[in-house]
Write a structure and sequence with these properties.
The structure holds 2 protein chains of 2 kinds. Chain A is mainly alpha-helical. Chain A contains 8 helices and 3 strands, in the order ααααααβααββ. Chain A has a 3-stranded antiparallel beta sheet. In chain B, the strands form 2 sheets. A 3-stranded antiparallel beta sheet of chain B has the order 3-5-4. A two-stranded antiparallel ribbon of chain B has the order 1-2. The chains are: A mainly alpha, B mainly alpha.
């Protein structure tokens, strides 16, 4: 990857957000987490985030360690498991994470309703000018979570890898700045693109990564915004007027 | 013109720059004088809060039925006049620049946790969210949506945070009971505590208590 253009994108979402995202995506019950599958996916997302140089909080690694610990415990036959003196005998090691997820999910739902109230409130103006209720009329740019974007990125990346198998090796150099120009050029006389279209011409893994970074940067700069009309569906990239 | 209580209140609310409580309105009524119209202000001196509340409800209905461009709402423990949502397009144009940004999902989550679990320390918020909250806390403090309410007795004596009056106003909440999921998430904290107390109590002795516990397999059959 080119070092000329470092994208500094802080991930404000935490490991619990990622877990909830994966659980929802896999359509599994929170209380019956298939630990092996979820752990593998979690690690896959984590490595993608690192590949993209996103600022990943240390908590993500702590959670990865916890998941792997749980997975290893579940792999052992019960009579060979080390008895943790702190834990109650026979307690499912997933329980602590599940309890945390369930509680956190409730707060997330409360936050969602609060956002709804904020939106309603932003249409009511009190006598005093702009001081109180307030919320900008501007449409929020991140209608899609970072994990949705990484998920879409992963799909494109896998496609690019398939293509790569029978390809001549040519040295190619892509820079994020070039890709930014390119995306803006495509959007010169179009208002909207599909996420997958942005990557249509990308032929290598490196190019996909750089293109994705360019996209993230454009979102951060508020030149583009992304929308996902359907949960886990195709992401739309829209030009900000 | 005969002066009615509800119209005095309407005038107060029209001119006020913040929500007014019925108590504040009662104090104003009790202290106002008017030399031009002797006796009028005095006749409202002993108005009770209940009468004020009733007059406000009446005024609210009156504004609604007359289809005025503004309405009376209960917010942050008080009352205030606000425009109706149908007029947002034009008012936005008029007042756009003064309006603060909408909050990000992490900020809203942190705010929900603080609102429902206050007073709460950064460490306890981080434990629920599973990620550090320092940056978010700073933003919320700057926006005056939360405030430091004290210090915990826990090791290191960490600061405790709570929500402000402005928080209620920002979201159009009458009080914290109005918070989404208030019953469930605030009660849960209380229930958790009683459950802990029960466990502590059951560990002592008293077998009668055990069937109240959360573990069904330990409940005696009769």
């Amino acid at each position: 990857m080119e070092a000329d253009y470092k994208v500094k994108l802080e991930v404000f979402e935490g490991p619990l957000d990622l877990l909830l995202y994966l659980i929802k995506k896999e359509e599994v019950d929170i209380y019956e987490i298939p630990i092996e599958r979820i752990t593998n996916q979690y690690l896959e997302y984590l490595s993608l985030m690192q590949l993209l140089n996103l600022e990943v909080a240390g908590e993500f690694l702590v959670m990865a360690a916890t998941l792997m610990y749980i997975k290893s415990r579940l792999l052992l036959p019960e009579d060979q498991q080390v008895t943790d003196t702190e834990q109650e005998e026979g307690e499912d090691p997933r329980w602590e994470v599940i309890r945390q997820l369930v509680e956190y999910k409730k707060f997330k739902e409360a936050a969602l309703q609060l956002a709804q109230r904020e939106a309603e409130q932003s249409r009511l103006f009190p006598r005093s000018v702009g001081e109180v209720t307030g919320a900008e009329r501007e449409v929020p740019l991140a209608e899609v979570s970072i994990f949705d974007l990484i998920n879409a990125f992963n799909t494109v990346l896998k496609k690019a890898q398939e293509k790569e198998i029978f390809r001549e090796i040519v040295e190619e150099r892509f820079t994020v700045s070039d890709k930014i120009e390119e995306i803006l050029f495509i959007l010169r006389d179009r208002a909207e693109l599909l996420f997958s279209e942005v990557f249509e011409k990308a032929s290598s893994r490196a190019e996909v990564v750089v293109t994705f970074l360019a996209l993230l940067e454009l979102i951060r700069l508020k030149r583009l915004r992304v929308q996902q009309p359907e949960a886990f569906g195709e992401i739309h990239v829209i030009k900000v007027a | 013109m005969t002066i009615e209580l509800k119209h005095i209140l309407e005038a107060l609310l029209f001119s006020a720059e913040r929500p007014l409580t019925t108590k504040e309105m009662r104090t104003i009524l009790a202290e106002a004088t008017d030399d031009e119209n002797p006796g009028v202000a005095e006749s409202f001196r002993h108005t009770r809060e209940a009468a004020i509340a009733a007059a406000l409800e009446e005024l609210k209905v009156e504004l609604d039925t007359a289809q005025r461009s503004f309405q009376l709402v209960e917010i942050a423990g008080g009352w205030r006049l606000v425009s109706r949502p149908e007029f947002a397009a034009w008012l936005t144009k008029l007042l756009d620049e003064a309006r603060p940004h909408r909050l990000s999902p992490p900020a809203l989550e942190t705010l929900s946790i603080i609102a429902l679990r206050q007073p709460i320390s950064r460490a306890d918020i981080a434990a629920i969210r599973g990620v550090e909250v320092d940056g978010v806390i700073k933003t919320l403090l700057e926006r005056d949506l939360i405030t430091i309410t004290g210090k915990s007795d826990a090791p290191g004596r960490p600061m405790l945070y709570g929500t402000t009056q402005k928080f209620l106003e920002h979201f159009g909440l009458r009080s914290l009971d109005d918070m989404p999921k208030a019953a469930e998430l605030r009660l849960q904290a209380a229930a958790l505590k009683t459950a802990e107390d029960k466990v502590a109590g059951a560990a002592g002795e008293s077998p009668e208590n055990s069937n109240e516990g959360s573990a069904p397999e330990t409940a005696p059959s009769n």
